[in-house]
Amino acid sequence: xxxxxxxxxxxxxxxxxxxxxxxxxxxxxxxxxxxxYNTLLRRAPHEPLYLPAGMTTDEVQDGVASGDSPGxxxxxxxxxxxRGFFSSALHEVSHWCIAGPERRLKxxxxxxxxxxxxxxHQQKAFESVEVAPQALEQLFHxxxxxxxxxxxxxxELEVDRDAFAQRVDExxxxxxxxxxxxxxxxxxxxxxxxxxxxxxxxxxxxEAMTLLPAVGEDGRVA
Length: 222
Description:
Order of helices and strands: HEEEHHHHH
Largest sheet: 3 strands, mixed
Mean pLDDT: 82
Low-confidence stretches: 1-17, 61-67
Structural class: mainly alpha
Shape: globular
C-alpha cells in the first residue's frame, strides 16, 4: 500500500461521477459490503489508503488532513482508491479482500510500505506480498473484460517484470482451481454479473450476497 501523502477522501461526486463504470464499481462494492462489512469505497485525491471506522485523515501519521469523509461516514471503514482510477479501485479492493478481520481494524491493515526506489531486497519482499492481491486484481479485470497489467511499482531498479507476471498468472490460476477468498469471490461475481451478464446492480448484489460468509465469520457484521 502506498504512503500517506494524501488529502482527505471524498465520495464520488464530481469528476468521478462522470465515469459510469467507476460509479458502478463503487455502487457494487458499497451494496455488497457497506452493511455486511461496514466498509465503503471512496476516492483519495493522491494516494490510496485504508482507514478503519472512526479514524480521520488528521490521525494518520504523515498525512495531510483536508476534506475528510462526511461525519456520517466516519462510522464506516473506508477504502480509498487513488485519483479516481478504475484499476486502482480493483487493486485496492484486492488488498481488502485478502486482509483478515484484525488487519481491517488497522490503518492500511498495519502493513509497512516502502515507496518507489526500493533496493533489490526490498523489491523481492514487495513482490512476495503483491502476488496474491495482483492475482485477484487480474481476475477482477477479467470479470469486467478489461486488460490487466502487473505493477512492480519501482522506477529506479531493473526488475524482471515477466517473471513477476508469471508468478501472478500462476496464483490466479490457483485461485481458479481452488477457489477465491469469499469476499473476492462475491465481488468478482457481482462484477461479472453487471459487466458481462448485464444484470442490474440490485440483481448482481443479491446473487453475490449469497457467496459471503455467514454473519460472525470473517468479521461479517450483518
